[in-house]
Design brief:
It is a single chain. This protein is an alpha/beta fold and 103 residues long. The protein has one domain (3-9, 28-95). 16% of the residues lie in helices and 30% in strands. The chain has two helices and seven strands, in the order βββββαβαβ. The strands form two sheets. A five-stranded mixed beta sheet has the order 1-4-5-6-7, with helices on one face. It has a two-stranded antiparallel ribbon with strand order 2-3. It is elongated.
Length: 103
């Protein structure tokens, strides 16, 4: 049986000034999520989060499953999805192919 779990990060403040932003409001990066597919002994991580602190939380989340992480699948190149290097492990990042629109 394959199990799917989802980890959702919190919003993160943007620390630099954004053009045309109402400075009376705090600009934030939106919450991001990663998914973990697990089988009997192994796991696949779908996407990675952007900060080292989040990466550490994800690593602990994976370790708590007792499963061996065998790969990371990166859905697209945005930093909040593709920062697998922040995990500090030798992981294989498999990137999806861009859609050609042909189905």
């Amino acid at each position: 049986m394959i199990k799917l779990d989802v980890y959702v990060s919190s919003y993160k403040p943007v620390v630099s000034v954004l053009p045309e932003w109402n400075t009376a409001e705090q600009a934030t990066w939106p919450a991001s999520s990663v998914s973990l597919l697990t089988g009997e002994k192994e796991a696949v991580l779908i996407d990675a989060l952007i900060t080292f602190a989040e990466a550490e939380l994800v690593v602990e989340w994976i370790r708590a499953t007792g499963k061996k992480l065998v790969t990371v699948y990166i859905t697209h190149g945005h930093g909040d999805h593709s920062s697998a290097r922040a995990l500090g492990h030798e992981l294989t990042a498999i990137t999806s192919r861009p859609s050609t629109g042909s189905g």
